[in-house]
Design brief:
- With 242 residues, the protein is an alpha/beta fold.
- The chain has a domain of 167 residues: P-loop containing nucleotide triphosphate hydrolases (Rossmann fold), CATH 3.40.50.300.
- The chain has eight helices and nine strands.
- A hairpin with a 2-residue loop joins strand 1 and strand 2.
- Helix 2 runs parallel beside helix 4 and helix 4 runs parallel beside helix 5.
- The longest helix has 16 residues.
- 40% of the residues are buried.
Length: 242
């Protein structure tokens, strides 16, 4: 895909966004701007709305009320957005074939796919795994392959839904290193995590969600040093937010 033909999806602007399922509010009056720069990390208790916010930002779920824009445009196809879920589905084919499939879906010409597959597998540390059946790879390896597939479309913004939730420390560090490398290349990373240590290591900006609402957002350094709300202070202290 020639990304030069498509204007940027950034900033992504939520304006009073609600998401409801029957009578339950999943997102509640979310007003938030996601712009270029270092990673934005979403934190909050289970059920706080992190995954739903990522899905809405990706364009996979419409708001029930409110407005969301991508680069000042509404209802924009996700040509320059990509998302990796906590448990990505692997195609029943080799590691390299998974990436080639993603490249084909992104419209990359056939004569460029081999070289681009090699580049992406190198970026995520899967050189030498080309022929490995994807479904026989470890959880950490599958997560890295999912990242390679997501990067096939050369996104402006990459959404990650708790990508290290079930990984051991070594695999977690590998994923975090890839996130930092991707961010350094100019891709905006928006990541949900339940791990405050990970948020401290990765985040440039923090968004704290509780009961579907944005409780506090801002620079990570300020948030961790001087949280402005009682909910944030309690969450950082390890207390339950009810």
């Amino acid at each position: 895909m020639n990304t030069a033909l498509y204007p940027s999806d950034l900033p992504i602007v939520f304006s009073e966004v609600h998401v409801r399922a029957h009578d339950t509010k999943i997102l509640n009056r979310v007003t938030l701007t996601i712009d270029s720069g270092s990673p934005t990390v979403l934190i909050g208790p289970n059920g706080s709305g992190k995954t739903t916010l990522l899905r809405v930002a990706m364009g996979l779920a419409p708001p029930s009320d409110g407005r969301i824009t991508w680069g000042s445009r509404e209802q924009l196809p996700p040509l320059r957005r990509a998302i990796v879920f906590q448990r990505p589905v692997m195609l029943r084919r080799s590691c390299a074939a998974n990436v080639r499939y993603a490249l084909a879906a992104a419209g990359v010409p056939r004569d460029r796919r081999l070289r681009r597959t090699t580049e992406l597998l190198r970026l995520v540390g899967l050189e030498g795994f080309e022929a490995r059946p994807a479904r026989r790879m470890s959880g950490g390896e599958q997560q890295r392959l999912a990242l390679a597939r997501a990067l096939a479309r050369e996104p402006d913004v990459l959404f990650l839904d708790e990508p290290t939730a079930s990984l051991d420390p070594a695999a977690t560090k590998t994923i975090e290193d890839i996130v930092q490398a991707v961010s350094s290349r100019g891709v905006k990373v928006v990541m949900a995590t339940h791990d405050l240590g990970e948020a401290r290591r990765i985040a440039g900006d923090i968004v704290l969600l509780h009961r579907g609402a944005v409780v506090e957002s801002g620079a990570a350094e300020t948030f961790f040093a001087q949280p402005a709300t009682e909910e944030a202070r309690r969450f950082l202290a390890g207390e339950l937010l009810l």
